[in-house]
Amino acid sequence: VQLSIFDVTQFDQPQLTATAVLGKETGASSESLFNPKAFTYFAQEGLVALPLSIFDNFVFFDDFIDIEDGTGIAVDAPDEPVEPTEPIGIVAPSRRGGFDGVVVFRVGIDTGFEELGRISTRFDDAGLFYASFARGVFIGDNIFAVTNNGIRGGPTADLTSQPFELVFDS
Fold first, then answer.
1. Interacting residues of 136 by C-beta distance below 8 A, sequence separation 6+
2. Widest CA span of the chain, in angstroms?
């Protein structure tokens, strides 16, 4: 995932002036890549909130193959490869570890991108691991990461503390 600033003073000759690349080593994804409403820009303060998933390592479909034991109940695949007697549907790649949440940047034409912090949208302790969406919402001097699982946030000046949290019951 890459954020870019272009100088379009000469509209027919745009010049790339700044970039921020996220998840370069292991890969990343953002709902903003296909949904512009997921990207939040707070122009008055020069702030950007971007929902982001950074992959720690990739896990592919064969790590999740379930094989029925004759009872109709799926069991975990054994460590040794087996030849299934029935076709197995491919499961989309998944991930373990990494980061899911909202990344907040200060952005300026002259200064480029400065990452201010990250707000995790994993609510592991509530049994809610992956949110179906994440949005950054700026209210006053605070930023909130809003998901279907809950809300976390804190002051944009210090995102390390994140004193605000509300977890929704599943």
1. 40, 49, 50, 51, 102, 104, 119, 143, 144, 145, 146
2. 69
Instruction: Please state the φ and ψ torsions of residue 25, each to the nearest 5 degrees.
Output: -75, -40
Amino acid in the structure at residue 67: I
Classify residue 46 by burial, with Cβ atoms within 10 Å: 0-12, 13-18, 19+.
middle
What's the pLDDT tens digit per position in 133-147? Answer: 889 999 999 999 999
Phi and psi dihedrals of 63, rounded to 5? Answer: -75, -15
Mean pLDDT of 108-123: 91
CA-to-CA dists, residue 54 to 51, 76, 88, 141, 168, angstroms: 10, 26, 28, 26, 24
Round to whole Å and give the CA distance between 13 and 120: 38
> What DSSP designation does 37 have?
G
